[in-house]
């Protein structure tokens, strides 16, 4: 039973309307924020204070940040 419920919300975006709003909202918000926020927040602070990034910026790393 648990396997079928886990497969539906993961590969079934339509289940949100069917009534699986409780299982979806918990997995969707926990996955993107926990992966996007920490990744971007760690990359920016580590690249700015570091002395090496300054050299990379001259080569063209500035463009990567803009993208």
Question: Which secondary structure elements does this structure contain, and how are they paired or packed?
Answer:
Layout: H1 2-11, H2 15-18, H3 23-47, H4 51-66
Region (Disordered): 1-67
Biased composition (Basic and acidic residues): 14-24
Would you summarize the structure shown here?
With 67 residues, the protein is mainly α. 82% of the residues lie in helices and 0% in strands. The radius of gyration is 19 Å and the shape is rod-shaped.
Protein traits:
67 residues, mainly alpha, 4 helices, rod-shaped
3D structure, described in words:
The chain is mostly helical and 67 residues long. It has a domain of 42 residues. Helices cover 82% and strands 0% of the residues. It has four helices and no strands. The longest helix has 25 residues. It is rod-shaped and about 55 Å long. The model has no long low-confidence stretch (mean pLDDT 55).
The outline comes out as rod-shaped
Rg calc: 19 Å
Provide mean pLDDT, rounded.
55
| SSE order | HHHH
Structural class of the secondary structure composition?
A: mainly alpha
In DSSP terms (H or I, runs of 4 or more residues), the helix count works out at 4
State the distance separating the first and last CA atoms: 44 Å
How many beta-strand segments? Answer: 0
The assembly state of the depicted protein chains is: single chain
Q: How is the main sheet built? A: none
Sheet-strand content, in percent, reads under 5%
List low-confidence stretches.
none
Helicity level: over 70%
Biased composition (Basic and acidic residues): 14-24
Region (Disordered): 1-67
